[in-house]
Amino acid sequence: MDFRESKNRFPPMSEVRLDPAETALLLIDLQYLDASPDHGIYGRMRREGKGDVCAYFVSQLPGVVTNARKLLDACRAEGLEIIYTRIGSLTRDGRDLSPSYREKGFHAPPDSRDIEILEELARRPDEIVLTKSSTSAFTSTQIDQMLRYMGIRSLICCGVHTNYCVETTVRDAYDRGYGVILASDACASLRQDFHDMALAVMDQVFCHVLTTEEVLKRLRGRSRG
What we know:
Blueprint: E1 23-28, H1 40-47, H2 55-78, E2 81-87, H3 99-104, E3 128-132, H4 137-140, H5 143-149, E4 154-160, H6 162-175, E5 179-188, H7 192-202, E6 208-210, H8 212-224
């Protein structure tokens, strides 16, 4: 049996309730370090002549950013909490980062360009930005406690990379009792098969995988209802 068909053996997940008072949009690591073709990790790879390694990912970024912006605009209009995560360290040399991040060069010092959220998705005053030093936002930030204090029970997620920080954050959110929707075309991985497999593993097990348009339709339908 194809692994991607195995999810059909599980009972379908219950619907995620999109009550604006209990729902947040979580934008995962859409920053210059790892979501820009000209800065950070991928800017460096392209300058070093390794652009072929990240060519697929870079080709997906415009669509990811466009769809993340659609979600951002819609969620702001509906009054949802907006929360960003970003990879970053509290120290100039990154000694506070997880070993995994240090080994892979995922280092964005304080006040660097790499730690900043992409301009197209820039935060507004009073929106929350959490700096994390590991793949999951639930491991190295106070996000769980903060969400509970704010009465958040459901998350709409997007960001990069699908099979890395996005997946670990989605899994951890589910294990803590949150309802999760993942916008499939507002995420990307280094390779399409990584992206597709991560979505197949998560869908109907840890989250509902929907397209951006499907998420927007859910939000609009809630408004009309």
